[in-house]
Specification:
By secondary structure, the chain is an alpha/beta fold. 34% of the residues lie in helices and 21% in strands.
Length: 325
């Protein structure tokens, strides 16, 4: 800027507020504590590397746009199918604009540098880091789930009975997923996914699922024993689901990879959405930590894990009971 920054702005480094010549103020804030962003009435905001912040930050900031021109901008490198993909790429709307660009469109970079990146990157990393595409990231907990391989309409599900997985919530969604069982195969045919649902209403949903799909057992999150008992008092076969994370994830991945799991993508959009976002943490060097899934986008994933893993744990006993009849 001609004349330098100091001629047009006065920066208070203690409060991190810059005052412009016309009296406008620019606030510089961290996004690490979203609640600290509440308060000011803003005309605009800008977030850089938005994939590193939570959707809560975005939700708070658009709520602060109370002065003209009422615009917000974000820039970022895509980071899997995260909230940015969900908010802008998956379902574009009229009041938002969305642009992508590849690294080689930057005229300030040398051709040698661009070629070196292309030679160094490959696969999903190339698509994401170089071409700016939202891709299913290698760090996904269930990377094998594919529309072309695992989608099957609920009407095609075979089996005499179903099972269900239940994850309790309140601010987070309450989730029930339903899978029809057929000789070791499970076909997820329906889901319930909604926050702030009273237990009596959730019982009614479960009873409807039991009637519609002949649900024998509800494998439930054991963290709310009073809810578990309420299900039982209502005549539902509710049991504590096996919650071990690592063996549970291994079981779900094994069923996916062996074609033992199918899902109706249209009937279960929230489960599908979480499949595309449920990922492992990365360390400070970008290395994926496969011992630590991120505790986010995992409510349907937890319910699914309770359902599939718990069913395999009782599978031998179930087969014996069927053989005795």
């Amino acid at each position: 800027m001609p004349g330098g920054w100091d001629e047009h702005f006065k920066m208070n480094k203690q409060s991190m507020v810059a005052t412009c010549e016309n009296g406008s103020r620019i606030y510089f804030r961290s996004c690490e504590r979203p609640k600290d962003l509440r308060g000011p009435n803003l005309g605009w905001f800008y977030i850089d590397e938005a994939s590193k912040v939570s959707q809560t930050v975005w939700n708070i900031m658009i709520g602060r746009l109370r002065k003209p021109p009422e615009k917000g901008w974000i820039t970022t490198t895509p980071k899997g199918r995260n909230w940015i993909w969900e908010e802008f790429a998956r379902r574009p709307r009229n009041n938002f604009e969305f642009w992508t660009g590849a690294t080689d469109e930057n005229s300030h970079l040398t051709r040698d540098y661009i070629n070196s990146l292309k030679e160094s990157y490959s696969g999903s990393f190339l698509a994401q880091e170089f071409y700016g595409e939202f891709v299913g990231w290698e760090g996904l907990v269930y990377p094998g789930i594919k529309l072309e391989t695992h989608h099957a309409p609920a009407e095609e599900a075979i089996g005499d009975y179903s099972i269900a997985g239940v994850d309790w919530g309140w601010t987070d969604p309450n989730v029930i997923v339903v899978g029809k069982v057929n000789e070791g195969r499970i076909h997820q045919v329906d889901e319930f996914y909604k926050p702030k649902v009273h237990i009596d209403d959730l019982i009614e949903v479960a009873q409807d699922f039991k009637s519609k799909y002949n649900v024998r057992t509800f494998f439930c999150d054991s963290s709310r024993p009073e809810y578990l008992q309420a299900f039982r008092n209502a005549g539902l076969d509710a049991r504590k689901g096996h919650k071990e994370i690592d063996p549970g994830i291994a079981t779900v991945n094994r069923m996916i990879d062996r074609g033992l799991f199918r899902i109706d993508f249209n009937a279960c959009p929230n489960t599908v959405n979480e499949f595309e976002q449920y990922a492992y943490e990365e360390d400070d060097f970008g290395k994926i930590r496969k011992d630590r899934p991120i505790d986010r986008n995992n409510h349907a994933m937890d319910a699914l894990r309770y359902m599939l893993y718990s069913q395999t744990k009782i599978g031998t006993a179930s087969c014996s009971m069927r053989g005795a009849r």
